[in-house]
Amino acid sequence: MELRHLQYFLMVAREGTISGAAHALHLSQPSLSRQMQDLEQELGLKLFDRGSRRIELTAAGMRLRRRAEEIVDLVGRTEAELRVSAETLTGEVRIGCGETPAVRLIANVIAEMQDDYPLVRFALHSGNAEDVRERLDNGLIDFGLFVGQVDLTRYESIELPARDRWGVIMRRDDALSRKESVQASDLAGLPLILSAQGGDELAPWFHRDLAELDVVATYNLLYNAAALAEARVGYVVCLEGIVEASLATDLAFRPLEPEVTAGVAIAWKRYQELSPAAEAFRQTISELWGN
């Protein structure tokens, strides 16, 4: 029994006549009648009661109709799933992002995917590592972008080809801005504004317990911390390139010396079945940066 025989059988059951079904299927009436007789012989069952005007299904025919509808529908849905293309792939890819200039790499992937899959949409959530990880664990996002020393052993992850540089943001008219780089001794006794999660990475650079520093504020997103620096509240120890600190602003960025950098990785839950759109994103980043 072939799929087309079931499709022909369903059309006959729907139309109620061989002639009507043959017309709908663009077949000759004798050809369709012969194929239905062959189907009955193959199954060893009488499927139709042939009246003078209409064909009625027997009890066996009604049972076959239910199964045939299930089979034809399953085949149709399977073909649709396997024929996903640029025109049909839809859905939303949800990405949680820590603050990092490396997000531009993800932006380039999104731009590329929009060309290939114009119906896919992206939702970005900005937050620190703790916030992003919580959302990833709870299934609120598909991927998380993490900066620095973050334990990702519970996830699948890919290291991005980027490293962020630590430094200090201060007012441009501050005496410390005249230096090309900042050493730990330069910050001794100065009011500092530190990342709420970056302390562990920076402790070795300071060569002292962070509790000994004059920390006047902490931050989880840099934009507000930069406003504190502009108001002369303190010196913001942060990653380069997240907020503008140039000649066009009142702020200046100076890198730490010796240099301190942070790696960037993108992660997703292990063993999680991703949506077709999220899986297309995963395949794209794996092709670009996977081992």
Structure description:
The protein has 291 residues and is of the alpha/beta class. It contains nine helices and eleven strands. The chain has helices spanning 3-15, 18-25, 29-43, 59-82, 103-116, 129-137, 199-206, 222-230, 276-289, and strands spanning 48-50, 55-57, 91-97, 120-126, 143-147, 155-171, 192-195, 215-219, 235-239, 251-255, 261-269. The strands form two sheets. Strands 3, 4, 5, 6, 7, 8, 9, 10 and 11 form a nine-stranded mixed beta sheet that branches. Strands 1-2 form a two-stranded antiparallel ribbon. The protein is rod-shaped and about 105 Å long. The protein starts with a helix and ends with a helix. The model has no long low-confidence stretch (mean pLDDT 90).
Short description:
The protein has about 290 residues and is of the alpha/beta class.
The largest sheet, given as strand count, sense and whether it forms a barrel, is: 9 strands, mixed
End-to-end CA span? 47 Å
Strand content: 15-25%
Number of separate helices: 9
Order of helices and strands: HHHEEHEHEHEEEHEHEEEH
CA-based shape: rod-shaped
Q: Over all CA atoms, what is the radius of gyration?
A: 33 Å
Number of strands: 11
Q: What value does the average pLDDT take? A: 90
Low-confidence stretches are none
Structure class: alpha/beta
Helix coverage percent of residues?
A: 25-40%
Spell out the key features of this protein.
291 residues; alpha/beta; 9-stranded mixed beta sheet; two-stranded antiparallel sheet; 11 strands; rod-shaped
Helix and strand topology:
Layout: H1 3-15, H2 18-25, H3 29-43, E1 48-50, E2 55-57, H4 59-82, E3 91-97, H5 103-116, E4 120-126, H6 129-137, E5 143-147, E6 155-171, E7 192-195, H7 199-206, E8 215-219, H8 222-230, E9 235-239, E10 251-255, E11 261-269, H9 276-289
Parallel strand pairs: 3-4, 3-5, 7-8, 7-9
Antiparallel strand pairs: 1-2, 5-11, 6-9, 6-10, 6-11
